[in-house]
Predict the structure.
Amino acid sequence: MDIATVLEQERRHVEEELERHLPDEGEYPERIHEAIRYSVLNGGKRLRPIITFAAARAFGHDRAKVVKSACSVEYVHCCSLVLDDLPSMDDAMMRRGKPTTHKIFGVATGILSADALLMHAFKLVADNGVDVGADGPSVAKAIRDLATAVGSYGMVGGQHVDLEIGVRGNVDTETLEYIQTRKTGALFVVAATLGGTLLGVAPEELEGLRQYAGDLGLAYQIVDDILDAEGDAGEIGKDVGKDVGKATSVTVHGIEAAREKAARLISQAREALGVLDGDTTALDDIALYCLNRSH
Amino acid sequence: MDIATVLEQERRHVEEELERHLPDEGEYPERIHEAIRYSVLNGGKRLRPIITFAAARAFGHDRAKVVKSACSVEYVHCCSLVLDDLPSMDDAMMRRGKPTTHKIFGVATGILSADALLMHAFKLVADNGVDVGADGPSVAKAIRDLATAVGSYGMVGGQHVDLEIGVRGNVDTETLEYIQTRKTGALFVVAATLGGTLLGVAPEELEGLRQYAGDLGLAYQIVDDILDAEGDAGEIGKDVGKDVGKATSVTVHGIEAAREKAARLISQAREALGVLDGDTTALDDIALYCLNRSH
């Protein structure tokens, strides 16, 4: 099977798990739970949980042992998309071909449901820790890593600086990389390491995964910028050119240098897998897919 | 010393700890950390962390062992106030005599800094667990309890239903109690139990604390409604009558029945302390203060 087919199978599996681990739509207050399900079940690529499962394979652990962590990183990602789309932030009307959450449910319910989803993610990580018999320091580290990836030194910090430069209109290479490592890279790293942290995987293996996922996340974002600059609107499913006037890898580096940088990062990411003893085929495939994807 | 003096001493101590455990204002991205500090260091009553310290005393543990949990519940409370004040929610201009966070920092930074503060709170609980040598299930339970208190079955749920009835304009007793137990009671319960959960306190003692804090939180909210209906604007420090047209304990029950309900809840709360072996004087004092306070 080619990589795209394998990833599509994985995506379907993840989709089922995401649905299974959400609160039921009928639970009170219904509107919040409807909004949560609307924000999550919208046909994303599900790359982050796919990375979590691939990492478990590299650690030699069964995927069932990391399923709650896998869902939790995707829930956090969905939460961040709802917040990014708010009128006070990117003011987006559409997301993956559907109206954004706040367009359907209103701004207040959008914000509240995003935070509820974030809380649900933390519960699942805690539960995952109990399920696999993790000790106190391991559960604490998993929670700390997730909170750091989301907070002011992670996604929140990245989104804030991104909004600030949107106002200022120009950006240097360092600031752009800051934004990309925080907005995308931070959660990729958690996706790759959360399960292993709970399962007591050796620090040097986790460090290898951290490097892999950091480079992968940055490359993923650069490829996103390239696709957005030159892609076909139908294929990538959002308005091409939405980043016009916004600093991206393409506006800062030019398209050829951006391509080279992405290729270099992916090569680095694949090398970092060398410290892992287990089967890293899936992680390797994901890295190749991220570089060569057309949507 | 009278209760008010003791609580004022406690408040000052908490104030120092809250300041100490926040990220530094100068850390990048500065504006997010300024907003966080602005939202937290605004002279609140600090009742929730005071409850955490009083509970530690009842468990026979040193206050140093719960200080991070104490700070974390106050940070969560401050986060919820920033979100409640947003234009899409209560649209409040002033909070404790100062412009609300989004008025100073803008709506986007308000939301982002509130979520960053929430993440900081989770980190502190995880750290507290490591500091006291808590095992995996205890750390997981503490995280789960905090996430539940904040999420769709806790504060988020309460705020959502509160906003919904604001639109509808009428409310039954059950819905009002739902809102009050979720918006106020849930975090009071976590304030009282979080430290004990990490310290491995016996389940029946934690259950006593849970009942105490649940009743206390509800009574606190009812007294708030009474003070708001009849209080003196100068003394309570916010616009009296801001709840005009909003369903409160006073509009639903009438002021006399509201007073009786608060007194009954406080009496119940104090009785629940009977299962605790340690020194419950401070918890008892807090209960009396909550009933008799004039601001």
The two ends of chain B are 19 Å apart (CA to CA).
